[in-house]
Amino acid sequence: ARAPDCDPWNTTEAHLLIDRTRASIPDPDLINGAPPPGVAGVSAGSPGRPWSEEPTHKMLEYVGRQPVETGVSTMYAVWYNSRRVMERTPIHVHPETQFTCILNGTLMFIAEGMETKNYTTGQCYVMPGMTKMVSVNVGDAPYVDVDIFRVSAGSVPWIVVEPSALWMQTTQFGQKDEGVSPRHGQLASIYVDIHV
Question: Phi-psi bin for 29: left (phi > 0), alpha (psi -120 to 50), beta?
Answer without folding.
Answer: alpha
